[in-house]
Amino acid sequence: MSLFVTGTDTGVGKTFIAETILRLARDAGLRCAGMKPICCGDRADAELLLAASSGGLTIDEVNPVWLKTPAAPYAASLIEGLAVDPRQLVARLQDLRQRFDFVVVEGVGGWLVPIRQNYFVSDLAAEMKLPVLVVAQNRLGCLNHTMLTIRGITSRGLTCAAVALNTFDPVADYASSTNAEVLRKIVDVPILEGLAPGLTELPANWRALIGV
């Protein structure tokens, strides 16, 4: 199984989750490839995915479209005079899926970030037809943002494979200490925690997501 990784917002830890999944799935024996269809600004996210992937990839295969402007893809494309062609991105995914056992596609920003005037991250995910992993930062506001994203995914006829909660602040507050429990009560998808830097194998609750 391959995955499309989206976030409830920008900066919630999508790349950390994607590269960790890739690295641990690769270490478990799968031929893995990361894909960052669009980078805006630098290519740091794509470089991390490339490093976590199995061999045989180039940075341009991982990241087919690189917009130099650090803005949303549609805004960057207007500034640079370059329209993104979603067909190119879908074709690149199909090629990777033929060559690798497991592909992790990391979206840009959140679910409704615009890629073209009337084309959003959600449209790209729908064309790619992969199960969607939602990454959320475990903080105040997480419940609302997560629910909106899950409903957006299911409204497109896609499967929400799980929600990954990232906890950045080691000091727990009322929200971060209760978000996982509340989400498990109000949504019918797995709520996954426990990915941290330095892990050497996938936690048991993540293995079904990866298929190992």
Describe the structure.
By secondary structure, the chain is α/β, with parallel strands linked by helices. The protein has one domain: Rossmann fold, CATH 3.40.50.300. The strands form 3 sheets. Strands 2-5-1-8-9-10 form a 6-stranded parallel β-sheet, with helices on both faces. α1 runs parallel beside α2. The termini are close together. The model has no long low-confidence stretch (mean pLDDT 93).
Put the structure in a nutshell.
The chain has 212 residues and is α/β, with parallel strands linked by helices. The protein has one domain (3-210): P-loop containing nucleotide triphosphate hydrolases (Rossmann fold). It contains nine helices and ten strands.
CATH topology: Rossmann fold
Residues in β-strands, percent: 15-25%
- Any idea what the radius of gyration is? 16 Å
**What string gives the helices and strands in order?**
EHEEHHEHHEEEHEHEHEH
| Helical coverage, percent range | 40-55%
**Which oligomerization state do the chains in this entry correspond to?**
single chain
Q: Termini, distance in Å?
A: 10 Å
Domain unit count: 1
- Classify the secondary structure makeup into a structural class: alpha/beta
Mean pLDDT: 93
- Spans of 5+ residues with little confidence (pLDDT < 50)? none
Count the DSSP helices: 9
Q: By CATH's scheme, which homologous superfamily applies?
A: P-loop containing nucleotide triphosphate hydrolases
